[in-house]
Amino acid sequence: MDRRLHGRGSLFDTDPPGLAARLVGLRPYQLRSSPYEHDGDIPFVVFAGGRGLGKSALLTELRAAYQGHTPVALIDGEEPQFAGPPPERPGEAWSPLAQALTTVAEQLAGPVKGARRISFPRLASGLLAVAAGGWSDQDMPRMRQEAERILLLNDSRSFLDGFAGRWATKVVAKLVATMSHTGPVVEPIIEATLEAFSEGISPNHRRARRAATWYRGYPNAGGNPKLGLILLSGHFRADGGSRAHAERHLVRALLADLDDAYAGIVQRSHRLGRPVVLVDNVHAPAGRNFMECVLRDRTDGIRDQVVFFAALRGYALPNSPLRPSGGTSMALRNASRRTLTEVARTTGWEPGASPSSRALLVSLPPLTPDDTLHIVGAVCRGLTLPPQLPHATHRLTGGSPLGIALLAESARQNLPRGADSLGALLTGEVAVREDRDGRPAYQELLDRLVPGGRLDELTVLATAHDRESALALARDRLPDGFGAAGVLRLEEQLSEEGWPAAAGQFVGDPFLRALLLLRLHHLDADHAEWRAAHRALIDHYGERDTTDAARYRLHHDLALGTVEFAVTHLRDSFPETDVGQWLSSLLFIASAPYYHAHDPEGRDFDGGHDHRTAVALGHTDAAQQAPEGVDTVLHLRVRRLLHAVWQLTDPLVLPDPQVADRMRFDLEQLSNLRPETTALLWRASRDWPSDALAGRPLRIPRDDEDRGHG
Amino acid sequence: MAARPWRWLREDVWEIRFRRYVALLLAATLVAAAVWGGLRLAREDRSCATGVAHPKGSGDCVGVSTTAYDFGQPRFTATARAIDRENHRLKPGSYVTVALLLPFTTSAPASLNDTLHELQGAYLAQYQANHGSTGEFPQVRLVLANAGADGTYWPRVVDRLEEMSKGPDRLRAVTGIGQSTDNNKKAVRELTRRGIPVIGSSITADDLANGQGGKDPFPGLARVAPTNTDEARALASFAKPAADKALLVYDKPGDPYTRTLQDSFKRLMPGSPNPEQPFTPPADRTQEGTTSNQFRQITQLLCSTPKSTNTVLFAGRHTQLRQFINELGQRGCMDHRFTLLTGDEGSYLTGDSKLDRKALTGNLSVRYTALAHPDAWRKGTVATGGSASDTATLDELVARGKQAPVGPIGPIDLDDGQLIVAYDALRLAVQGLREATPSGATTPPLADVVNEWAFIKGQQRVNGASGWICLDVHGNPYDKAVPIVELTPSGGARFVRIAWPEGKPPAAACLPRA
Q1: Does B9 touch chain A (CB under 8 A)?
Q2: Where is this region: Disordered (chain B) (predicted)?
């Protein structure tokens, strides 16, 4: 079971059974049945989460876990094949959903142990009727190719039936024959198709004949399957709401064919569990339309026995203005919402009246520090790891499976080359696959986390703290065309993709922000962009005179390597400011990114040596001269503390235990200077070193928490 | 590695119901086949041949063989094949079956020889009966019945024989029987009780005969050999031993044979001054045991008798007889001449390698009544009771029996008389069966055969190779010729002369006293 994903046991467990086993009725990776949790109605499971949370990996793993044991199909709504019709194929005879159904059926027909290939006569005849709407006698090869692909769906490919596809070829020949004369295309095709199905030249003709009559039930068909198919084809071509109607029937045809494959004692005695359909990026049109059809049918009482697992980027399906069918889109508003850990033993799901209530939205939690430890350990087997690396990795990535996996891979490749910090691992080159050249890890990560343009803009805006500063930055540093609208669009995109918002940061997710800032820093050789962005923000905040503005300004000063302003501010404000606020200012200012040493002008000068440790440990104190009239001890202490916090909270370096110890001492000493709030500083002196070393974020202790908090 | 087949079974077979059912069906079939095969194998184990099987706890092949099965004794093979060949030659419906009940699985060399000779004799008689110039019916099918080396399994053999008498085998008589042991007696009693005629070839015991004390405990039993009493009478007429010259040595407690002989001897010598000397052999009389020791002491006693005591009457079985003779060969008084007289058990010693032949050269002659002897009629000294021509018929058959089409039936030895009496017994059986067959029918009713024996006399007598066989109303031969033979140091038996139970040969009419 080495393949099992870390931290996803709630889904893949076998004993007691996890979510997958309970829904599919089969243990993952094993051909052994498992009791069902939902007997009649099955929830449409939607895994929700931002990029990099491992949704796609989860679906891929589900497919691996069930492939060969039960029919499985995995489609990705964002695949190029669903984006638009292939060239030469008219759009009126093509839709993302129809394409998705073809792909899904082809995959479901894959070999399953102990059972014969599933055939899809209903779906095939429906798809054929739809495709016929785009055929003309001008383009025979294309028509031949399309028809054959669709007809192969009806191929049960049993050893009794001879060679695969012989039947399909025969029918195609028949269809071509009907095309030879001019005139309407759809009707003769449908007629020939139905004839082929019902005449018994089909491999398993009894089933096929039954299937051929299925379209009798199409509205207004009047019991005539041929008319039903003609209407279906017409509706599909008409686009708009009627296409959605036709699509629903196609989905229904797929599910009916699947049900047929599971009907009867003989069939059931060959099959275990339920078929599984996996839809990645379900928010994309192909997936979304598919899901809507299934949910609506289930709401209408048309039951099926298919287990759907879908992956949704973000946490809600927004009301899509792009959906052309007018008013039929849905937002999963009434879906039950759970976290993955909550559904580990039972879903507690009950269908409601609305279609969206048929869905079960399962959010994927980030991985735990332990999972991180296991993943890094597994990838870097045989390497001596710096002891804080797994925890620091978790702190940097916030438990993002993608981040952890890539950093672990980078550690495997770069630790032997001398990399010693997370920053070095991120900038170090990683070859994701053996046949690919290495690229810096952070670029590899950003490509996956922020695909498809706007990366450059986001890179600059990552330094901003809110919409206002972002707009200011855009005005100053981004092309004119981008403007305020661009900022707002990016903001919306971030939230749609499930990135969390955070106070005081335009890019809320610390990991993404760290990567973007790293990219900004490395945009050009002399870091001009980097410095310009920070200076722009310093200017922006320099115009304001609030405490917050001062903090932001000092933060960016620090990012540019100017320490003195921050030290002065903290030193001077220490006696009067509320200790909690002072600590929070300290933390915020010290959260400034630190990219290997800068001189006062912000330029590298010592080739990557981190001087914060030396300062924090007091090695440079002797050379420091406090300004006139200033308490030298306090000055030096604040300076040391600032550097210590800066070093310990820098997600890109490993926390230094010596620095943590020194920080504890300095905080203790500071607490003596503010007798009225000693407890707060004392608490911080206790919590911060251990939190820092364990890779936890440092928190401002609250007054009422000063006791008993560990 | 053991997990993989298990996982395969658990997941790829058991979980998929269709495969599970197929596998279960297959497994059930396999188990059934295994059970059936096992049972069959187990049964096969018990079986030796068609109709013959090991009883539980015994190595003997017991039952009635209708094939060429030789009971695992190579010396029987040729004859068994000849019999099977002859049986197969018979047309369905033209024959009746006669069973030859003998201890075919015995391991004692003497008994084996006897059994072989009886088998050969019975076959020759069968061949003669089926190939007679007159083509009389019914013809005879011969089957071999074995109740174990010591006859322990007689009940199952009797059951089987009864079944055959009622079924298409049409069994109408059982011949052979062999020695007069308790088991044989029980078998004969049961067979006759169930109405199956029995013809004893070499049984001589008085209590395995009808008419003793006026009772017929074995209705339908006919005998070829004279009773022990008759033998003893013949012996007595031969030796006319004076009471004061004889000493009786007898088996105590004895079996029917020895007791008969003992009683007959006692009657001959009322008031003998010499004490009777008992000995006690092992329960199985074929075992050596420590009886020699007893004989040595009896020998010493003999030596202490006056010189006039020159006759020893021995009532015992052949193993003990041999031991006694061997001891006598070592006796201290070699100058004291003795003649040892005994019954037909003496005939076993002719082929006995354990016999100390030198003993016969030291003033000791051993004479015994033989059942038959090939030289008995050669001189043709008597006009009635038997004839040389009857012997010649057998001799000719024996000669033909050396090769096809009659034989081969293995090495033939007539000296012990077993072949002759077995031949005569089957001839007697054939005579009875044919006489009992109503004209126009091919098969005699069983009951008629039972009643037929009383008519075998006078002109209907059987002119046996061992002498005339005229049966009295009890089925015992009347005044049957008893050859007295003497054991020779070379291991053979020298014919001395014929003795008659009645003291003289029967009249030409050969009608027994009422």
Answers
A1: no
A2: 266-290
What CA–CA distance (Å, rounded) separates B432 from B460?
Answer: 9
Among B9, B14, B17, the residue to mutate for chain A (most A Cβ within 10 A): B17
| Angle at which helices A186-198 and A225-238 cross, to 10° | 140
Mean pLDDT of chain B: 84
Of B12, B17, B18, Cβ closest to residue A31: B12
**CB-CB contact of B312 with B249 (8 Å):** yes
ipTM of the complex: 0.71
Contact A269 B17 (CB under 8 A): yes
Residue A498: both structure tokens together: 């499930």
Q: Specify the residue for token string 């699947």.
A: A258
Threshold 0.95, pTM exceeds: no
Q: Do B16 and A266 touch (CB under 8 A)?
A: no
Task: Tell me: pLDDT of A161 over 60.
Answer: no
Contacts of A446 by beta carbon, 8 Å cutoff, 6+ apart: A455, A515, A516, A519
Range of the domain at B455: 62-225+378-480
Both A427 and A373 in a single domain?
A: yes
Give chain B's count of helices (H) and strands (E): 13, 17
Task: Report CB contact under 8 Å: A32, B16.
Answer: no
Q: Which residues of B touch A115 (CB under 8 A)?
A: 16
Please tell me whether residues B263 and B353 are part of one structural domain: yes
Shortest alpha-carbon distance between residue B17 and chain A (Å): 5
CB contact under 8 A, B15 and A31: yes
- Which residues of A have a CB under 8 Å from any CB of B? 30-33, 113-115, 266, 268-272
Residue at A538 is within a domain: no
> What percentage of chain B reaches a pLDDT higher than 90?
9
CATH of the domain at B452: 3.40.50.2300
Distance between CA atoms of residues B416 and B110, nearest Å: 10
**Residue A34 near residue A14 (C-beta atoms within 8 A):** yes
d(CA A690, CA A446): 31
Rg (CA), chain B: 27
User: What token pair was written down for A372?
Assistant: 């991180």
What is the number of domains present in chain B? 3
**Nearest by Cα to B341 from B359, B325, B361:** B325
Torsion A294-A300-A306-A312 (CA) sign: positive
What secondary structure letter does DSSP report for B227? P
Residues 18-57 of B with CB under 8 A from A: 18-19, 21
A594-631: per-residue pLDDT in tens?
A: 875 454 444 455 555 678 888 888 888 888 888 888 88
Peptide bond into B138 cis (omega under 30): yes
List the single residue in B10, B11, B18 with the smallest CB-CB distance to A270: B18
A23 and A52 inside one domain? yes
Q: Are residues B285 and B361 in the same domain?
A: yes
All residues at 6 or more sequence positions from A600 whose CB lies less than 8 Å from its CB, including other chains: A561, A562
* CA dist B160 → A149, B70, B126, B364, B445 (Å): 79, 19, 22, 48, 19
What phi, psi does A30 have (nearest 5°)? -125, 150
| A27-31, A473-477, A574-578, B385-389: range with lowest mean pLDDT | B385-389
Question: SS3 of A698, please?
Answer: coil
**pLDDT-based confidence at B514, cuts 50/70/90?**
low
End-to-end CA distance of chain A: 37
Is A420's pLDDT higher than 80? no
Q: Minimal Cα distance from B11: which residue of A?
A: A31
